[in-house]
């Protein structure tokens, strides 16, 4: 389980060697400076923010229906890594009796469907309210789902080779560094296991987000983007006050090349767009989401 680091403001402004060590520890754990000279614990902020998103009805927090679960038990099911396109069935030919990790995937969407289709599912998420969505459906429908609160970039709650499939829908935009996510996913998959991941096209973050919401495209940010480093102090303050999750873009080199560097072989890929109801003008020009299927190679002589 990831342990958050929090520091007092005076430590961050001190020049003593002890505070230098604390600052470096903070950086390793995703803790950043704020506009006031203090620090922001990204993991904790996003936990609280995603709990709030559950209350607001964010689309990634709306659980599947009882009818969807009943259909999955009959073999009629789909899951989504990105907003519009279902995962190709060739990527998941069978999940019956498979050990599946739904990684940063709370919200009662992927896990209940996979459990109803016969998998034994563990959901890891940073938001207690997102996890409760899955737990509620598990209780109501007798599904084999375990929920674990934790950090997608630190899976030390699980042993090596613990899972056969990892399902990781669009969520790694909420961590500053995606490379540890791939490394940990590789470690906890068994040889021959597969990682199904969805993530945003980095091009989305080039544009001013407020203007996009108003229907205009105006280039503003250099990539890779970070709410912490790319926005003004006033904008960061507004995000904090609104309880909005903090986001970070990642390079394609880290999103795709990072999987290869972790040891995966990428065997499938598709692009997708946000839903028309989101009214994002960039949708009219380019796909805004990517999904990949990656395999952990089998060990020599089997696995």
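Q: What amino acid sequence fits the structure above?
A:
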């Amino acid at each position: 389980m990831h342990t958050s680091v929090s520091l007092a403001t005076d430590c961050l402004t001190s020049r003593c060697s002890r505070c230098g060590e604390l600052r470096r520890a903070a950086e390793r754990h995703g803790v950043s400076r704020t506009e006031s000279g203090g620090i922001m614990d990204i993991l904790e902020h996003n936990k609280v923010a995603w709990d709030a998103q559950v209350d607001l009805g964010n689309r990634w927090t709306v659980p599947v229906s009882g009818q969807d679960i009943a259909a999955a038990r009959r073999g009629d099911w789909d899951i989504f890594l990105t907003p519009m396109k279902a995962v190709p069935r060739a990527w998941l030919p069978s999940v019956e009796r498979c050990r599946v990790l739904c990684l940063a995937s709370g919200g009662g969407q992927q896990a209940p469907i996979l459990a109803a289709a016969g998998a034994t599912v563990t959901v890891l998420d940073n938001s207690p309210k997102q996890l409760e969505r899955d737990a509620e459906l598990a209780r109501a429908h007798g599904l084999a789902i375990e929920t674990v609160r934790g950090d997608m970039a630190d899976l030390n709650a699980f042993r090596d080779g613990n899972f056969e499939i990892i399902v990781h829908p669009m969520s790694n935009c909420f961590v500053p560094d995606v490379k540890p996510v791939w490394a940990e996913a590789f470690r906890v998959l068994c040889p021959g296991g597969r990682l199904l991941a969805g993530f945003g096209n980095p091009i989305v973050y080039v544009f001013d987000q407020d203007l996009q919401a108003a229907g205009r495209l105006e280039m503003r940010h250099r990539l890779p983007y970070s709410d912490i480093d790319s926005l003004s102090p006033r904008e960061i303050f507004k995000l904090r006050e609104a309880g909005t999750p903090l986001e970070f873009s990642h390079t394609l080199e880290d999103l795709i090349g990072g999987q290869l560097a972790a040891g995966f072989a990428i065997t499938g890929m598709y692009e997708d767009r946000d839903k028309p109801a989101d009214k994002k003008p960039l949708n009219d020009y380019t796909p805004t989401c990517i999904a990949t299927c990656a395999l952990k190679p089998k060990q020599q002589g089997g696995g």
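Q: And what stands out in the fold?
A: The two ends are 28 Å apart (CA to CA).
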